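Q: What structure does this chain adopt?
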Amino acid sequence: MASLWRVRVTRVSDDTIELTLSAIHPDAGDPSASAAFAMRLLADTAPERLDREAGPGAYWDPVALAAYADRVVAAVSVTARRGLPFDEGAARRDIEAELRAGGLDPADTTAWQDAFLDAWRALWQDPDRVPSAVLEIRLAEPSWLSGTAPGQEWDTAAYG
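A:
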């Protein structure tokens, strides 16, 4: 499965972690305030632990993950939402308008497609343009924060 979000740890305290999520794929959707989504994000840093404690394959099993996450995650809040929900059609239209303003003609199919793909890739590499949000996760089992530190980053396919 493709990665959907880039995750950056921005704050860690005794029982709380703050994560900044930046979309890296148009299918990322909206970040969820569900315990299951928060658990998937945390499990990315310790997949063996999740398998050991919640059962093999729990990351992808919505029933097993929800049951485990409800015990581990005390609360989740989503704040600082920017560019959400992502409007892919509007983003494509904006890029097309930029290309036209730069003098490109859609009739020149090869040049148009190449320029569009370059601009589309650039959009997903620019943290100021991609959809993003901040998740604050308070844990009932703070041991899940062991080894996490501000500045830590990873890409995730977490959903839900």
